[in-house]
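user: can you give me the structure for this one chain? C-alpha cells are fine.
assistant: on it. calling the predictor now.
[tool input]
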Amino acid sequence: MSQLQPKSVIIVGGSLAGLMHALAFLSLPSPPKIRILERSPTALLHNQGAGVVAGGETLKFFEDYVRPGREISVRSPMRHYLDRKGEEMPESVEHRTQRMTSWDLLYHLLRWRVEGMQSEYVEGLEEDDRPKAEYENGCTVTKVEDAGNDGVRVTWTQTETGGSQSAVADLMIAADGGSSTVRRFLLPEVERKYVGYVAWRGTVPETELSEAAKEVFIEKFTFFHSSGNQILGYLIPGREGTLQQSERLFNWVWYCNYQDGSPELEELMTDVHGKRHAITLPVGAMKPKIWEKQQSHAGDILPPQFAEAVQKTHQPFIQAITDNVSTQNSFIDGKVLLVGDALAGFRPHTAASTSQAAYDALTLGEWMQGQIDRKEYEARVMDYARRVQQHGVVLGERSQFGRHPLSG
C-alpha cells in the first residue's frame, strides 16, 4: 500500500476533525473510499451553540477545501478589557482583527461537502463534483489491529443493530476527541485529566443586549479578569449561520475554579436526572437552582455588561477543562493516525482546538499530495500539538491560579 495513495480510509469520529480529514482525502485527484464511524447514535451531533475563534488555519482550510461560497465569520477588529465597573481599560485596547464563527455553521458546511447533508445552513450554495463519504452513526470502536499488507482492521459495535462489525482499510484516522477510544487502545498511559476549573458557556441574541452592553460587545473581543475568574465574549453567527446584523449571537465563556472531587463540582456536573457528567454538562441538563445561583454570582463579581449577558442566557452549558497530550500520532507502521483533540486537547484559552483540526488536515493534504513526506508530516503535527497544548497550560494556570506551571 502506497502511503500517498490509500484506496480506503476509515475515520473514527464524525465531528470537525474527522470531517476535515475526510474532505482532505475526498479532494485528492484519486480519492479513496471514505467511511466515517461516529459514536453518537443521533444523525446530527448536538449543537451546544458554541462560539469558535476562526483562526488562520481554519480559514485557510475552509477556503482551500470547503469553498462554501459565503462568509463564515464575524469580524471583531478590536480586543479590550473591562474593569469591574464595566469601563474600558484604555491600556488594554488592541486594534487587531479576529474572526469569530460558530461550531454549528462549520459542522453543517462540512457535513454538506463530505456526505451531502442538506440543511438551512447550505441553502443556495453550489454543489461540486467531489465524491462523498459514507457516514455511520452509533458506532463504538472495540478493537484496532494490524491486518498486515491489507492495512488495519477496525471492529465496532452498532447501536441500532446491537451487533459487531469489522472492516479493513489501508489507513485509519482517529479523530474521536479528547476522550478518544482509539487512543486508549494505543496509548493507555495517556489520560484526560481535569485541571481544576470549568467553562460556563452561553449565548444571547444581540438584540436583547442593552445599549451599554452593545457598546462594549458588538464586533469587539471583550475580556474581564479577576482572581480565579475570567470571562470573555464575542459575536458569532446566528440561527442557521446568518451573519446579518441584529440576527447574530453574543457568545460568552466564563472560567470558574472548582476543586476536583469537591461537593460543589459534583453538584455542578450532575444533571436534572441525577446523572454525573464527566466533561460536558449539555444544554438543558442544568439544575435550575444551580443556574440561578450562578446568575446571582455574576451580578456580584462581573462587570454589569457581562452580568447582564449571563443573566439573559436561557440555555447555558458547562465544559470541564482538561489536559491530554500524546507522545506520538502514528501507529502500526503509519496505518493509524491520531489527530485533533484525540492527539492533544488544548485548553480553550488558546482558541486553537478547531485550528488544530484544520492544521492537521491541511498537513495531511500536503503529505497525500506528495508535497512533504511522512516524516515531515508527523514532525509538524506533533510539534503543533505539543507547542500549543503547553501554551494553553501556561495561559490557564496563570489566568485561574496565578502561577506558572514550569516554574519551581
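assistant: here you go. Residues 14 and 38 are 5 Å apart (CA to CA). The chain has two domains: 8-53+104-192+323-401, 74-102+194-321.
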